[in-house]
Amino acid sequence: MNDIVEQFEVTFNQIHQHLKELNGFPKNDNFVELLQRSKRKHSVIRVHFDQLKQYAKLRNAIVHERISGDYFIATPHDDVVKALKRIKRTLDQPPEALEFATRPVLFFKDDTELSHIIEAFQQHRVSQFPIYTNDRTFAGLLTNDGVVRWLSENHQNGSITLDKALASDVLSSERERSVEFLKASAPVFELEEQFEISLVENRKLKAVILTDTGNPDDLPAGIVTTWDLIKVDQREREDEENE
């Protein structure tokens, strides 16, 4: 077999195998169908979707429309094989979730005074802080929306007193917010999968907190919101442009 064609086919089949793995080895393992499914969940597929779809057409032409022996109706260009191999390398060794997280993570204990947390919201320009108990048990995610809600529920005669108000008091006013935990060294695919699952389940995932072990009661190494996922797409597109 022509060497360039063999390299293309081998790499293409390896990517096909990755797509099967990313989708739990479904019965329908058609390459383009797997592409469609993976596009919704994973940035590397989303960014390279059109390319991979065209490569699938080329692969079909090579496999099903061979004229004879080593004479193919179409032969991939060197640049095509190089691009396909780069995509395969990214699938083989995806970046870690922690690379796209906001860090370091500012967090507070549940007995922290609310006035201090309000100052932190203003100073750091973030919208949420993880809250932990004194024994490092995760207590919940305290948000600026939750603070506003608590203030509206606790004003008297048009005035609000923050004296003795603690983070734990505000947590009771937080609406249920989905928070997941993931090992900091987990591949970015697992991070994206968490947000995709929450979308399918119609459950708003507010954040994924990354810890060294993935245990909720370990201190946070990073925190990822839907806004941080934009970094994943940007990173992949920059890598593509610099190739």
Automatic annotation (TrEMBL):
Does the record's keyword annotation contain Cell inner membrane? no
User: Which keywords fit this entry according to its UniProt record?
Assistant: CBS domain
* UniProt-listed InterPro entries: CBS_dom (IPR000644), CBS_dom_sf (IPR046342)
Q: Which residues form the CBS domain?
A: 101-157, 175-240
Repeat among keywords: no
Q: Which Pfam families match?
A: CBS
Transmembrane domains' residue ranges: none
Return the Gene3D superfamilies for the record. CBS-domain (3.10.580.10)
Protein name, per record: CBS domain-containing protein
The species this protein was found in: Halobacillus karajensis
